[in-house]
Amino acid sequence: MHQPLILASKSPRRKHLLELAEIDFEIHTKETDERYPCDMEINEVPVFIAMLKARDIQSDFPERRILAADTIVVLKDRIIGKPRDKEDAMKILASLSGETHTVITGVVILEGDKETHFSDSTKVTFHPISARDIEYYVNVYNPFDKAGAYAIQEWIGAVAIKKIDGCFYNVMGLPISRVVGYL
């Protein structure tokens, strides 16, 4: 009997992308300590955190195939995390306004002793965004659970993104075509 893939993520965006790809899966999550070594290369961080998430779930489901991912936003060699509050979200978006940043998603697939991991990078350039538009977006869309304080598939993506170089779905949180290729 085929057992569905386990998605080790609470992200509604990752859930949506797996559904879009018609992958049979179920969700199992645990609170995971997402700290990483301070001397780690930035591009290694999302795979490291995804591995922590995957291994936490693998301890409960050792024979199942597990998919975990983590997404970071990098601006000027600095990781921009999820905003702490409304003021922080507005500050983050103001820093991204008129700039190009990189979105890196680390992906880990575990199945027994077999381990696959990779990352995908997408460069995103914003038009300058007015303070009024930033405040509107934060008040209406509450982007507090999103790295970089925005979701590309929401209003801000439609009105403020000037250019994308790479996978759109990677910015949503999962480079789904690559994941399907590995599965």
Task: Give a description of the structure.
Strands 1, 2, 3, 4, 5, 6 and 7 form a 7-stranded mixed β-sheet that branches. The mean pLDDT is 96. It is built from 7 helices and 7 strands. It starts with a strand and ends with a helix. Helices cover 34% and strands 27% of the residues. The protein has helices spanning 12-20, 45-58, 86-96, 131-141, 155-160, 168-172, 176-182, and strands spanning 5-7, 25-27, 65-75, 78-80, 100-111, 114-126, 161-165.
List the helices and strands and how they pair.
Elements: E1 5-7, H1 12-20, E2 25-27, H2 45-58, E3 65-75, E4 78-80, H3 86-96, E5 100-111, E6 114-126, H4 131-141, H5 155-160, E7 161-165, H6 168-172, H7 176-182
Helix pairs in contact: 3-4
Low-pLDDT runs of 5+ residues are none
Instruction: Output mean pLDDT.
Output: 96
Supply the helix-strand structural class.
alpha/beta
Computed over alpha carbons, the radius of gyration is 17 Å
Task: Based on the model shown, name its key terms.
183 residues; 27% strand; seven-stranded mixed beta sheet; single chain; alpha/beta; Maf protein
Task: Briefly characterize the structure.
The chain has 183 residues and is an alpha/beta fold. It is 34% helix and 27% strand.
